[in-house]
Amino acid sequence: MILGRLAYPLRMGVLIGAVLASGCSVRSIMVRTAAPLITHGIPAFYEEPDPVLGAQAMPSQLKLLEVLLRNDPKNRRLLAALAEGYTGYSFLFIEDEFPDRAAKLYQRAAGFGKRLLRPGDDFTAWLAKTGKRDVAGLYWTASALAGWANLDLSNPEALAAIPRAEKMMLRVLELDPGFQYGGADVFFGVLNSARPVIAGGDPKKGQEHFKRALAYSDGKFLPAKLLYMQYYTVTVMDEDLFRKLHDEIVGADPDALVEMRLANEVAKLKAKRLMEQIDDLL
Fold first, then answer.
1. 281 and 219 in a common domain
2. Which member of 23, 87, 123, 144 lies 3.0 to 4.6 Å from 110 by CB, making a disulfide possible if both were Cys?
C-alpha cells in the first residue's frame, strides 16, 4: 500500500517536472530528497476510510513512484514502497475481480522486492545473512510471489517460486514475527489450510498460525481474520466458524485500528462477498 495525503500528487508532479529537466546527478539527489517525504506519507493512506477513494488513488501513486525510481534505480525506499504497494493493491482491489491482471501485478511487486533484496546465487547463504532491516523486503516479496503463484497455477515459473517464498517467510518469523500484525503467521495459515494434506498441508497447524497472528492485533487487523474465514473454515467445512468470523469482521469497530482503516474496510466488503457465496463454499 502506498502514499498519503491527497495534496501529494500535485506537489510531486511539480517535483517530477523539475527532476526530468535536470541532469542525472541532480535528478538522483532530488529523488533521494523526495523519497523520504513520500514514505512518511504512507500512514495517511492506510488511514483512508473510503475504499473507493483508496482504489482510485493507488494506481497514479504507484506510477509516480516508478517514475521517480527510473531516475534513481537503486533507491531502497522506492523499491520497498513499490513492492509493498503493488502487493497491497493487488490483494485489496484487483485479485477478486481480475485475477489474471492481479497475477501480473504480483509478479511486478516481486520484481521490485528482488531488486531491493538482491539475493545472491547461493540463496540459502544469502538468506541466513539477512537481518531486521530486510524484514519488510522479505515479507512483501514472499507475499507477492505467493500471490502470483496462487493466481497463475499453470505457470511453472510461478509455482517454482513458492519454496523460496516459504523460506523467506520463515526468516521473517525468525527475525520479527510481529511484523504486519503477524503477517508471516497469516501466510503459513493460508498455506497450511489451502494446500492439500497429501502435498504437505495441515489445517490444524494452519489454524494455529491464524490464531497466533490474530493475537498480535487482538483480532483488530481484519485481513488476517478474513483469510482465516476464507481458507481455514472452507477447507474444514466449519460453517459455524465461517459465520462467526463474518459477523466479527463486518461488525468490527472502524476506529479500533485506525492505522489500518483502509485494509479493514476492504476486508469487510470481502467478507460480505464471501457470505454471499456460502452455499457454494460450504
1. yes
2. 144
Q: Are residues 243 and 145 located together in one domain of the fold? A: no
**pLDDT value at position 183?**
98
Convert the pLDDT of each residue in 257-281 to its tens digit. Answer: 999 999 999 999 999 999 999 999 9
- 194 and 164, same structural domain? no
Q: Do both 196 and 166 map to the same domain? A: no
Closest to 143 in 3D by CA, of 101, 96, 177, 191: 191
Would the pTM of this model clear 0.85, i.e. be above it? yes
- Which 3-state string (H, E, C) describes the chain? CCCCCCCHHHHHHHHHHHHHCCCHHHHHHHHHHHHHHHHHCHHHHHCCCCHHHHHHHHHHHHHHHHHHHHCCCCCHHHHHHHHHHHHHHHHHHHCCCCHHHHHHHHHHHHHHHHHHHCCCCCHHHHHHHCCHHHHHHHHHHHHHHHHHHHHCCCCHHHHHCHHHHHHHHHHHHHHCCCHHHHHHHHHHHHHHHHCCHHHCCCHHHHHHHHHHHHHHCCCCCHHHHHHHHHHHHHHHCCHHHHHHHHHHHHCCCCCCCHHHHHHHHHHHHHHHHHHHCHHHHC
Name residues of the chain where pLDDT drops below 70. 1-41
Query: Are 23 and 62 within one domain?
Result: yes
Quote the pLDDT of residue 30: 61
Range of the domain at 8: 1-73
